[in-house]
Amino acid sequence: MATRTLQTTLMMSLAWLLFIITTSAAADDQSPPVLDTDGQPVMRGTDYHILPAAAAPDPAGGLTLASLPSPNRCPLYVAQEPPEAEPSEGHPVHFSPVTADENVVREARDVVATFSVATTCARSTSWRIGVEDGETGRRFVATEGLPSYFRIDATATGGAYQIASCDDGPGCGAAGILMREGGRFLALDGPAFPFRFKRV
Predict the structure, then answer these.
(1) Element (H, E) at 184
(2) Cα 51 from chain centroid (whole Å)
(3) Which N-terminal residues, if any, form the signal peptide (predicted)?
(4) Mean pLDDT of 89-106
């Protein structure tokens, strides 16, 4: 009798586990895709310029690489092209979903972001969480070293997205622009900056 009860309990536990796994997988598949400026899904390994959304507070350019104000030129940090009459689109970036068989970049799912450009500083241009700003405590987004996971979430404004990282620390840090000595750097833990993705 005890063996039969144990078998029944084991079967119910396995059925429950299978239900949870199936439900989680179905929910993941329903995460909406991140869309580019043409309304097409952002795809793994495809190059995109990350530009300010139409709702952005100023007419600056796309994301690029720059050095923090310091004696050292390296490592390079994720920065924003300065405002100009016709702002630069910056350097192209490609995304790699952490889920190996996922080719579509989906909202609220972990991705690795990598600049598709060679530099003299590093072999890797993948994004990672960098040093803290001494004044605000916000974390800069750097390159080189082990990449961090980032996620892209839709904003209330159609076609605009925010970038965040939940990779280091108890909560997610939204990415915004932090001004430092004339430079515009991507930094976490502050007001989110709205972006859009333009396929190269």
Answers:
(1) strand 183-188
(2) 14
(3) 1-26
(4) 97
Please give the structure tokens belonging to residue 163.
């970038």
42: left (phi over 0), alpha (psi -120 to 50) or beta: beta
What's at 13, amino acid-wise?
Answer: S
Side-chain-facing half-sphere of 36: CA atoms under 13 Å: 20
* Cα 88 to Cα 190: distance, rounded to the nearest angstrom: 24
CA distances from 173 to 30, 49, 97, 139 (A): 24, 22, 19, 9
Does 139 score more than 80 pLDDT? yes
d(CA 76, CA 181): 16
**Alpha-carbon distances of 144 from 68, 88, 89, 195, rounded to whole Å:** 14, 24, 22, 23
Does residue 8 register a pLDDT over 70?
no
50-71: pLDDT as tens digits:
999 975 667 799 999 999 877 7
118-124's contacts with Cβ under 8 Å and 24+ in sequence apart are: 119/65, 119/76, 119/143, 120/74, 121/73, 121/74, 121/75, 121/76, 122/74, 122/75, 122/76
